Amino acid sequence: KLNVGVDTVQRGVEGLTYLLTESSKLMISETEFQDSIHVLGFSDELNKLLLQLYLDNRKEIRSILGELAPKLPSYHNLEWRLDVQLASRSLRQQVKPAVTMKLHLNQNEDQIAQVLQTDPSTLLHLIQQLEQALGEMKTNHCRRIVRNMK
């Protein structure tokens, strides 16, 4: 009925979907949306229709995107224990420390537990990496990225 190829229609639908989802994710204002679609070179009438489509559906699109987001487990509690092996049958004097952690997580209103075991040097390295990642989040570049993700 449109007298165009299937690929053209498919690319048009995908482009429109991308435009609406990204605009809804960022919750851009009317003027920002108009500036974004003005660059595409559409007629004023089509720009007004796209703006109205965006304004009518952005809340619904955001709710659908929220439902599609993966539900990750969240921290509830941590139990830990330090075990040290001082000797064995073959070695009378040795020191072999191990840190055992039981991580309790909430996932979909259920509690699950993960047991992890590591040596202290690996645990210290992990702590350093996490502190470095937290420090990285304080940079202006990361703040800008996080602000755009909301």
Automatic annotation (TrEMBL):
Database matches in InterPro entries: COMM, Commd2
PROSITE patterns hit by this protein: COMM
Residues covered by the COMM domain: 74-141
PANTHER family hit by this protein: COMM DOMAIN CONTAINING PROTEIN 2, COMM DOMAIN-CONTAINING PROTEIN 2
Protein name as it appears in the record: COMD2 protein
Recorded name of the encoding gene: Commd2
